[in-house]
């Protein structure tokens, strides 16, 4: 979608918004799939309520993009603009056992920054691509931990109230790959409370998680991490593997040979290819196991 409304165009600079017309979302997502739209990069949190109210009034639909690592975007010209936060520098500050982190901060860098300040707990998240805001929204986790356990406060734009609010950790529910945030809430910053741990000790944990991940996941390939959530007590990857579906493809969209719950873009896959592959695998799992797998990947299709 192209912004042509002169009122919107004129307001963007004073709202601290960088306008990038005709941006390819394939370049902003780890799957390297997605069509084109206008990207609005937000440099001032305070201007978000005014910006969104302007877009609403002027009838410009929008979506919030984090790090694009758990996202499948549709093909072609997209019918909404995309908003993305630009982090200010520094985007992480540590005081005692607390880390104050901007939502746009890189998750892996946050884990290592905290580790260097002798704050541990998040070792399992090393190697999970994306931003802290994205991890927060979906309660990212791995190797027995989840980010939600360490959240003490979240600053966010609440779409329903149309204002920036601060929530205490106990006002938010964090479940397996799910949180109580509304889909249109926009994460802005988080305060984490992390256990004290000596840096070399944390590094050991990080190395172990890195090794496990390297051994079981297709890290060098274009993917969105796991496509499906694990059903209670089972592994979607193992079920797909048991059906012999590793390597199954639709065009260049392919079930990874390494981990069957990772679907990779092996070349020039389209969203259409990837969605067809997801539907096919879901159907086969349902037929054989009687389980309807739930998407973990977020789909923006139209
Ligand atoms: N397995 C297979 N074949 C496969 C994949 C897995 O047989 O193709 C077997 C493994 O051998 C193992 C079991 O299934 O016995 C579980 O596999 P794994 O340890 O890889 O865990 P997972 O349940 O497949 C989950 C998360 C991952 C996270 C790992 C490690 C989900 C959907 N997946 O995978 O998270 O990294 O545990 O904690 O919760 C993600 O969410 O995007 C993600 C990658």
Overview in brief:
This protein is of the alpha+beta class.
Overall description:
With 302 residues, the chain is α+β, with helices and mostly antiparallel strands. The chain is 25% helix and 25% strand. The chain contains seven helices and 18 strands. The chain has helices spanning 6-11, 48-57, 107-116, 132-138, 199-216, 236-242, 271-289, and strands spanning 17-24, 36-42, 62-65, 71-73, 81-85, 92-95, 98-102, 141-142, 145-146, 151-158, 163-168, 174-175, 178-179, 186-193, 249-250, 253-255, 263-265, 298-300. The strands form six sheets. Strands 6-7-14-10-11 form a five-stranded antiparallel beta sheet, covered by helices on one side. Strands 1-2-5-3 form a four-stranded mixed beta sheet, with no helix packed on it. It has a three-stranded antiparallel beta sheet with strand order 15-16-17. A hairpin with a 2-residue loop joins strand 15 and strand 16 (253-255). The radius of gyration is 20 Å and the shape is globular. The protein starts with 5 loop residues before the first helix and ends with a strand. The relative contact order is 0.13. It binds uridine-diphosphate-2(N-acetylglucosaminyl) butyric acid (EPU).
């Amino acid at each position: 979608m192209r912004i042509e409304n002169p009122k919107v165009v004129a307001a963007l600079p004073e709202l601290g918004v960088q306008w990038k017309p005709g941006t390819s979302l394939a370049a902003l997502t780890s799957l390297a799939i997605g069509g084109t739209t206008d990207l609005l990069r937000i440099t001032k949190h305070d201007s978000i309520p005014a910006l969104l109210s302007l877009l609403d009034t002027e009838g410009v639909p929008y979506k919030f993009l984090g790090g694009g690592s758990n996202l499948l975007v549709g093909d072609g010209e997209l019918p909404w603009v995309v908003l993305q936060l630009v982090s200010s520098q520094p985007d992480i500050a540590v005081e005692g056992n607390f880390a104050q982190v901007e939502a746009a901060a890189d998750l892996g860098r946050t884990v290592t920054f905290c580790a260097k300040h002798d704050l541990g707990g998040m070792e399992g998240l090393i190697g999970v691509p994306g931003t802290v805001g994205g991890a927060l929204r979906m309660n990212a986790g791995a190797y027995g931990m989840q980010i939600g356990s360490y959240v003490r406060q979240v600053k966010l734009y609440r779409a329903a109230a149309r204002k920036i609010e601060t929530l205490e950790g106990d006002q938010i529910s964090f479940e397996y790959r799910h949180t109580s945030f509304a889909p249109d809430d926009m994460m802005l910053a988080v305060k984490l409370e992390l256990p004290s741990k000596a840096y070399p000790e944390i590094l050991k944990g990080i190395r172990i998680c890195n090794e496990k991940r390297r051994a079981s996941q297709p890290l060098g390939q274009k993917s969105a991490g796991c496509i499906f959530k694990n059903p209670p007590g089972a592994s979607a990857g193992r079920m797909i593997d048991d059906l012999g579906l590793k390597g199954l493809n639709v065009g260049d969209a392919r079930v990874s040979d390494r981990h069957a719950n990772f679907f990779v873009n092996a070349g020039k896959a389209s969203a259409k290819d990837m969605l067809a592959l997801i539907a096919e695998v879901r159907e086969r799992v349902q037929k054989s196991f009687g389980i309807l797998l739930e998407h973990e990947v977020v789909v923006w299709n139209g």
